[in-house]
Amino acid sequence: MDEQHAATNKANWDNRAVLHAKSDSGYKVRQYLDDKTRLSNVVAFDVPGLGDIAAQRAIHLQCHIGTDTLSLARLGAKVCGLDFSAASVAAARSLVAQTGDDVAFVEADVYAARDVVDGHFDLVYTGIGALCWLPDMTRWATVVASLLSPGGRLFLREGHPILFAVDERIPDGPTLRFPYFNTSSKPMEWDEVDTYVESEEKLSATKSFQWNHGLGEIITSLLLAGLVIEGLEEHDSVPWEAMPGMMEKRELDEWGLKEHGGCMPLSFTLIARKPAS
């Protein structure tokens, strides 16, 4: 990612963080203060795949304002959250200072994670909407492998790359328009005033750059980094209204297609492990 892309995306996420941390935003941060056992819907969806993570040392890459991060801590893990947005880290630290959850947060680019945290982790967690902000999967996978202890695992749930290839602005069902394969040196460029959750305010830093990564690219990068793929599950839902007007809300604020259910995957979960020796 060149300096222009990085600076533009950082400004965009600093702006989003301020909006998302407000109590009336779609993140509903107040609920984590009112209910000290509350898990984010994203992590609640992930619990069956995560299993028992009590006492595990975990790092949450691209943690944003920390709602998923503190949820991992509420499952018993010792968690560090990392994000490149200063505003996101500030909001995350403010949130856990109020909730009392024992979570540390570090401000850094994900590619520099190995340089800013000590030791190794039993769990590297990466959640929805993270990989599209990274241009280089091979470099990312190398960082993930470097963070894991022998026997440690990566837990990744992400929007499906086929979903990111759909133009939701075209009516009458899902329509492919954007690249599935990350074969161009140029990212997709966006200019949008709305963020992806409910917010009474508009973005002022409206521009951003994104890269789509196909499943083959993601899996191959992890294999090249020496990890073993243990599971890959595709889901027919995603935790935001990715195609407005075409979707219906389900439990845990997951969204699925109304008229075209089952025609395409909307998210996926991938689990990979670093060999014990």
UniProtKB/TrEMBL annotation:
Signal peptide: none
Domain Methyltransferase type: 60-154
InterPro entries, A to Z: Methyltransf_12, SAM-dependent_MTases_sf
Coiled coil location: none
Superkingdom classification of source: Eukaryota
Name used for this protein in its record: Methyltransferase type 12 domain-containing protein
Classification of source organism: Eukaryota, Fungi, Dikarya, Basidiomycota, Agaricomycotina
